[in-house]
Amino acid sequence: MKTYVCGHRNPDVDSAMSAYALADLRRRTGSENVEAICAGRMPDKARWVFDHFGLEPLTSRRDVYVRAKDLIDPHVPVIDGAAPLSESLRQLETSGESSLPVRDASDGMFLGMLSPVKLLGLFLAKSDLTLPTAKAPLFREGVVLSENDRVYDIRRTAVRDAHNHFPVVSDTGVLRGTILKRAFAEEPPYRMILVDHNETAQGIPGVDEIPIIEVVDHHRISFAPTREPIRYMADAVGSTCTLVTRLYRAAGLRPTKEIAGVLIAGIVADTLLFQSPTTTAEDRTTCAWLEKICGEKAVDIMKGLSQVDSPLVSMPPEQAVLSDAKCYNEGGRKFLLAQIEESNFALFHQHQEELSAALEKIIAAQGLDFAALMVTDPLYGNSELLYRGSERVRRMLPYRLGGSGTFLMPGVLSRKKQLLPAILAAVS
What we know:
This protein has 15 helices and 18 strands. By secondary structure, it is α/β, with parallel strands linked by helices. Helix 1 packs parallel to helix 6, helix 1 runs antiparallel to helix 7 and helix 7 packs antiparallel against helix 8.
């Protein structure tokens, strides 16, 4: 069974790196078919890390919804429409199935289902059983599924249908295979490990339809109950990569040189090279241990990350806001907090009007009460906040309004530990 390891939506460096490293650890400790994926577009800084260490970047996925193509049974035969009917009937008998799908021999198009009941009239008429199966009476009265249909949407219809076999076709009608009815009552064909988040609302779309078997995170706990016991590691450290490294050491394993570099990148990116108030002693000692394996200094990796183009330059305004954004639902209010690292506040002010419009657009599209973008200078340890939405919350913010129309936040670096508590106090 496939297991995906995935960070939160709008992934950052720590989210992507911790997923990559934990997937490697799980494979090395005996788990099979484990793959790290990225929830949406890979951030440029994360892509730089993979390129720098010569590693294949994570596969980006928009969702993990279970779809019809995921339930196709590879053991159910497909009948060639050009085969003699007698041969197809023997294939049907050998399979033990009540019906089998028939496809066109030339283009693979679905022709219908071959069933003995439908052929009864031919037998009574003593028809020629050497004719091609495609010329025989085939039935298409049952449910035909598209390969991209969500199982959640089709399950009830399929279970209530009188037939036990459901052909699955592509958007152009090409036969992909068959789903047996019993598959709709079985567990989904893959499982999920969450890193750098534990709230399914912040996870990749579809994660709430899949069994979650493990969580590794350093945020507040808002995890829903599970049917079975799971692995759960949460601790108040500055980076999820610190916790993944802890798991390597607990297993008596050392990451490879490249993965040690990946883990360092996640730690320095999330702790802003140990300047963030979320930084702990363990983050520092972990980085020192990984430096010995990697052969590179954390400060040099941070320099490389800082040279990657700012999202303010490389992305459209709305995409820049959403590149590292998290949604919250607290105190009866739904809101979004985004963060961008940028040492050049002049560049931020230059794009402020477009970013304000992007926040307004996001508020309308997502039905939010308010949204805010925190632009952080990790070198000097300051941030500015661009806010749009609820005036009541705006008045309660504990920050001074600057001349450019943004809130000045000296010494504020952490969205989780500094901005979010201030916002929660304002909405309470």
